[in-house]
Amino acid sequence: MPVLYLTPLSHFSRKCRIVLREIGLACEESYVPNLLSADPADFGGNPILRVPVLRDGQHWVIESDQIVRYLLESYDHGRDRFAFFSMSTAQRNALSIVSAVMGAEVELILSKRSGLAEHAGGIYFSRYREVIGHGLAWLERNAAAIWPEVEFSYLDIALLCMWDHLRYNRLHDETASWRWIEARALRHASRESVAVTAPERMQALQWELYPSQRPGA
Question: Which of 172, 164, 169 is nearest to 213 (CA)?
Answer without folding.
Answer: 169
